[in-house]
Amino acid sequence: TEPVSTTAAPDHEVGTADKSAKALAAEAGRRRTFAVISHPDAGKSTLTEALALHAKMIAEAGAVHGKAGRKSTVSDWMEMEKARGISVSSTALQFNYKSPETDPDEEPNVVNLVDTPGHSDFSEDTYRVLTAVDAAVMLIDAAKGLEPQTLKLFQVCKHRGIPVVTVINKWDRPGRSPLELLDEIQERIGLTPTPLYWPVGIAGDFRGLLRRGEDGAAQEYVRFTRTAGGAKIAPEEILDSAGAAARDGDAWETAVEESELLSASGQDHDQELFIAGQTSPVIFASAMLNFGVRQILDTLVALAPSPGARADVAGTERDVTDPFSAVVFKVQAGMDTAHRDRLAFMRVVSGVFERGMVVTHAQTGKPFATKYAQTVFGRERSTVDSAYPGDVVGLVNATALAPGHTLFTDKKVEFPPIPSFAPEHFSTLRAESAGKYKQFRRAVDQLDSEGVVQILRNDIRGDASPVMAAVGPMQFEVVAARMKAEFNVEARMEGLPYQLARRTDAESATELGRQRGVEVFTRSDGVMLALVSDKWRLQYIQKEHPELTLEPLVATA
Length: 557
Ligand code: GDP
Prior knowledge:
With 557 residues, this protein is of the alpha+beta class. Guanosine-5'-diphosphate is lined by residues 38, 40-46, 118, 169-170, 172-173, 286-288.
């Protein structure tokens, strides 16, 4: 592995960025920050690569005319890409993109693609990432339709009010009928799909896309040509209706008819309803062949919201033009085993972030120096000098920072905490060797504050043996691995036979403690939780003891 430098680049001058409201509004306005979410195997990594490839080619072509300074960003990025290909584990991929549809004299858009973990055990991390984006691209496998993780993620987006662009992927392979796929989205999610690009050719015979106008009428035919292995951008040919009919007669006619059916059932794009989370623009694509990838980027640029104001705990909005503020949405450790470091990722909410700036950590009121700010791209890191609303910055060895925390300058602000998921898996945790108790205790506190798992305690088990609560059991493995790597503590864990957690209180605790299949704990945030073996046991207790407090935890998904 290549050495990764965590030393700061030569000090840059803080305070040189243009902080005028006009400059800030313009920088925020050209940004699009989104995440791709999907059930595993739907093609998230393939699409990420395709988007990056597409952006690179455009950026490369555009760089010649670009202003000085812009080009270096593009070529730095290309250097990284050349060196090791696009990493699928990148935290945030930033690139400039100039849509062929936007005014050639305008600055290019800045696209921030924030990565989400693929495995459902880490859905809480995905949820945290979704608090840091302004839109989501939901990928669906054309042959499989909606899958469990797709449904769950759609609900999270709905709950957060995040507009969703739906991409039906793998259209190059045999799959279901397009209308049937849309029906499934409508019926099972209650979101009205409004296709922008309709497939010409059935799944497995993907020829191109019919572009639907706002009124649903066919505007043009984008015909694709395959390239070897989809390694390059698929050449496009733009045809009008007459040209399309002459070229792909039957397939085109079918697409036109289907598109008319959609209009008849009111499935045309409506920007307000999309932003309100009631409709979702749909694009058919093949990430593997690079078909429809430009259309995804153009849709994000044209329709997805740019970074906007964010409400603080008191409900007051922090505008993008206000002084610097950011929210931490992810803490990642052990990304680089040689350094055993810990990175806290923040999304800039307002103002300009400049490396070297001293910011205030809202939760502790303490100053925090940002000399070591980085963008992280797979295992590669590069130093960030400035960042604007919507951008993602990694802060090195930011031990005090946890997901949901706020950083700011000048004008105090604290954003609402990120609600935690209701845990469904529980395990004991203790140090293999009693002599390591101090390190163990430190490790538990650290991992708890980062939100890796929830830590529960009660007097019977004692401090040396807390209980971990998680959404997925793989989170426990992360705890064990990090304890070993960062704190040199061998952890011993044992799963507990509880399936549910309910919020309770001190008055109910004594009686609950007498019940079979129940154990009462206090979580580190002070909330009392009753762990219950299963839902039948819970129902029984609720029936026998209606006076006891047993409330569902706020479920966010
Ligand atoms: P992820 O788990 O969502 O990141 O999915 P991947 O990007 O790893 O893709 C899963 C599998 O589907 C891989 O074998 C890909 O090559 C394949 N795949 C992804 N996109 C497409 C596509 O558009 N067409 C076809 N035929 N295969 C695809």
